[in-house]
User: Fold these one by one.
Assistant:
Number 1:
Amino acid sequence: MYNTDIPTRAELPTSAQLLRSTAIAFVAAAGILVTIVLPAEYAIDPTGVGRMLKLTEMGEIKAQLAEEAQRDRQKDSTGSIEQSNRPASDQRSSLFGSALAALLVSPAHASERLVVAQAAGRKEETVITLKPSEGVEYKLTMKAGAKVNFSWATDGGVVNYDMHGTPAGGGKEKSYKQGRGAAGDEGVLTAEGDGGHGWFWRNRGAKDVTITLKTNGAYVEIKRMI
C-alpha cells in the first residue's frame, strides 16, 4: 500500500515564502475591501473604481434609504410621545374624530385599502398613496425561513425603495435589496430570522404616487411601521 511521501525540509516553504504569501493575501483582501466592499456598502470610494463599476451608486442608495427610514422612525416616535402626554379627554376626542372620519371617507378615495383572502398561507393586497417627498414602511411578521411571494408596482411614477428585515428582538437590520427610480419589483422574500421583513418606499417625484403591494405566503400579518 503506497502512502504519500513526507516532504523533505527543502520542500517545505521557507519563512520568507510564508511571509510573502501572507502579504499577498493581505494586499488582495485590502484591495477588495477598498474597491468593492466600501463602495457597495458605505458609498466610500477612495480609488474611484467603485463608481466605474456602479458599486458606489448602490452604496449611496443604501445609505440614503437607511437615513430616511431612521429619520421617519424618529419622527414617528416623537409623535407617539407627544400623543401619550396629551390629556385623556383630548385623546378620546381625537380617537372619536378618527373613527368618524374613517366612517365618512369613501373607499374610492381612501389612500390605503387592505383586501384579505385566506388561501395557502396568507394573501393580501395593500394600496398606498405617497405624496411628494413622503416615505412609508410596511413589514410582514415572519418566522425564520418563511417565504412570501410578492410584487409591487406604481401607477406610473417611480420611487426609491429598500427591502429589508429587522430581528424580532431588535438588532441590526438586514438589507435584501435597494433601488432608485423604480416603478416596481417582484420575487420571493425569504426571512433570514424571526421578525419584521418588508419595504421602505420614498416618493422623490413632484406628484403623488400610488403603490400596489401584493403578498402571498407564510406570514402572520402586515403592518405599517412608518
Number 2:
Amino acid sequence: ARGTAFRCFVTQEELAERRAAAEANAEAARDETLPDGERARLRALAAEGLRAFRSPYRDGARPPSPDSPFVVRLRAPDAGEVVNADLIQGDVRIAADDLDDLVLLRADGNPTYMLSVVVDDHDMGVTHVIRGDDHLTNAARQMQIIEAMDWPVPYYAHLPLLHGEDGAKLSKRHGALGIHEYENLGYLPEAMRNYLLRLGWSHGDDELITTEQAIAWFNLESIGQSPARVDFKKLDNINGNYMREANDARLTREVIRVLHGRGTVVPASAEDRLTAAMPGLKERAKTLVELADAVYYLVTERPLTLDDKAKTLITPEARAHLAAALPVLTNTNWTAPELEQALKTFAGERGVKLGNLAQPLRAALTGRSTSPGIFDVLAVLGREDSLARIQDQLTA
C-alpha cells in the first residue's frame, strides 16, 4: 500500500468553523485602524484557513476515539505540481499547494463523484475525456486517483465554454436550449452538426462542412482555447443553406411533421402539391417552422383567411383588376411561363404595372403578402383552384 488514502476524522462542523474563522480574520484585516503588524497577522491566518485543506490525519494521527466517524481522503502531493497535457489547452499546471486532500468515501461509505467517475471511465476503457474547461481542476484531482491506482491516464481535452453574444457564459437568458429542442424550432440535424462543429473549430474558410467532411477533417488539437460566441442568426443562415440543398420530398415530410405537431390536418392530396411547390418555397425559408408557415395556402381549404397585410391588398381597384384578369387566365395554357406572358400582356393593355396586379393576386391565392413567385404559385395550385380562390375574393 502506498498510504495515499487515509481515514480523516475531521467533521463537517469543524471544517465549517475553520472557514468561518478564516473569513472573520480576512474581514478583521480590513480594519485600517489596526497596526500594520496585526493586520498582516490576520491576513496570514485568513490565508492559512482558506488554503486547500490538508487533513491533520494525513500522517497517521490517532482518531479522537475508537468509534469516531471518518471519511477516506486521498493525500495531495506535498510539493511540486500536477501537469495535465491537455489536447486543447496545452500543459495545464496545478500547484500541489492548490490541491486539497480530496474525499474518496463519505462517512456513510458511499463513494464521491471524483472516485466514481474515475473508476467508471477505467472500467469502460475510456481513452479520451472530452468536456468543458470548467472541469480543468477536476482533471488534476482525478489524475491523482488514477496514478494512485497505477492505471493509464486518459487523454484530456477541455473545450472552451460557449458564450452568448454579450460575451457572458451561455445560459437560458441567451435563448440556450437542450439540443433536442432545436428540432422543434425547425433546424435540420446536419445544419446543427455543421454549426456546432464551427464553434471554436475551423477548416480554412469553409463555412458549410458536411458530416462526411467533418469526419475526415476534424481533430481536437485544432479547437481554439477561447470561448466561442453563439450567433443564432448564423445558425439560421446555415440551416437555410442546408434546406435549399435538401431533397424536396424529404422537406415535404418534415413540413407535414411540423404541421401535424400544430394540429393541422394535411390531406393526402396536398402532399404532391407541397413537393411540387418546394423548390420555390425553400428558397425563402431558413427553418422548417418558417417553411411550415409558408405552405399555409397549399394545405388549407377554401375560402382562405387572409392575414392583415394581405387584406390591405384587396382594394376595390384590385378587385376590378382581378375580375378583368379572370377571362384571360381561364383561356391561357396553365404553365408558369405562359401565365406570366399572358398577365404581362394584360397589365400592359390596362396600363397598370405588373406588380399592381401580382400583389392582390398573391393575396387572393395564398392569403399572405409574400410567397414564392406568383406564376409558380398559379402553376402549383392548378387552374381550377386558382380561379376559384380569385373568385372567392371577388365575392368576399
Number 3:
Amino acid sequence: MAALDSPRQQLLSSLQGRSLHIPDLRVIFQHWPQAVSPELDGLKQDLPAKMAMLTSSSKKLARMQKAEFALFSACWWPTAALERGKILTCLCMWLFIWDDEIDAEVGRLSGDLKASQRFRDETIGYVRYCLGLGNEACNPPENQIIAFFKVIGDAALEHCTLEQREIIMKEMEFFLDTSEIEQRRRLHEGLPSVEEYISCRMGTSAVGVTSAFNEFAYGTSPLPMHVMEDTDMRALWDETNIIVWAVNDLLSLKKEIQQQTVDSLIPLLYHKSGSLDLSVALVVEAIEKAVRNFDRLAAALMDRYGQDDGVVERLRCFIEASQFNCTGNLAWSLRTGRYGVCQESIAGGVTVHLPQLG
C-alpha cells in the first residue's frame, strides 16, 4: 500500500464518499445494434465446471460468479452459435481472472513484480504454443489459470487461420506487456499522467484480443490481410478499444475505490482538474468523439471495399461485431455485480456513490 502522504493515497482519500452522476450513455449508441444472445441459458450451463477448472478458491469463485461471464459473452457476441459462444465465454472469463491475479489488492501476485513476471512469461509461452505458433513442445503448466487457455487455443487452432492466430498472439502480447507497465506504475507512489495512462490502457483493456475473435464469433471466413491491415481498419479497432475501456472506467470506479486503486481515467482527470463533474464530462465527450470517428471510419471502409463482392459482407459483419462489442459492453457493465452499478436501465443517468473506506 502507498504511504499515507503519497499522491496516490491523497487522491484515494479525496475521492472517498463522493458521488458522481453519469448520463444516459445509451443515447450515444442508439444508432448501433444491441442484442442479447438467445443462447444465454445454454452459455450458463457448464460455466460452474469451467470456473472450477480455473480456481479452487471460494473467494475467486464468488467474484467470478458475480461477474456474470455468460451475460458478458451473450451481450458482446449475440449472434454467435452456442458452441462458439461457449469458447468466447471462456475467453472473457480467462482474461478477467488472469488480470485479477496481478490486480491491486485482490490479486495474489499484486505486490510481487518478480513472481508476476514469471506468470506473464509462462503465460506468453503457453499461449503461443496453444495457438500453434511455437516451435517447441510445451508441457501443461501447473498454474490452473495458464493451463486453461488450452480450451481457447484448441478452438482457435480448429477454426482460425494462421494469420488470424498471429493477430490474436500480437494482441495478447500487447495485453501482457502493458499489464507489466501498469503493475510497475501501481507499485510506485507517483501517479501516471493522463497520456501515459491512456497509452497503457489501450493494452490492459484486452479489447484488441476480443476484437481478434470477432470473425470467429461470426463464423465468417477471414477478411483479406490488406483489408485487416488498412490504416482505417486499424483506427476502427482503436476507436472500439477507447469506447469500451472509457465506459468501463466510468462504471467501474466504485469497484476501483473499494479496491483502493486510483489508476483509472476519472481519478487521474480529477487529480488534474479538481472537478469530478468535469472529469465525467470529459470522458463522456471522449466516448462521443470515438463513436463519431468509428462511424466515419466504417463508412470509409465500406466505400473503399463495397464493390468487392468477396469482401463487403465480411466487412459489414466485422463492423457490426465491433458495434455489438461496444453496446454489449455497456449493457453488461450496467448489470454485472462486478462493478456494483447493478441497473438494467440507465434512463436519466445513474448516480454512483463512492465508498468511504475505514
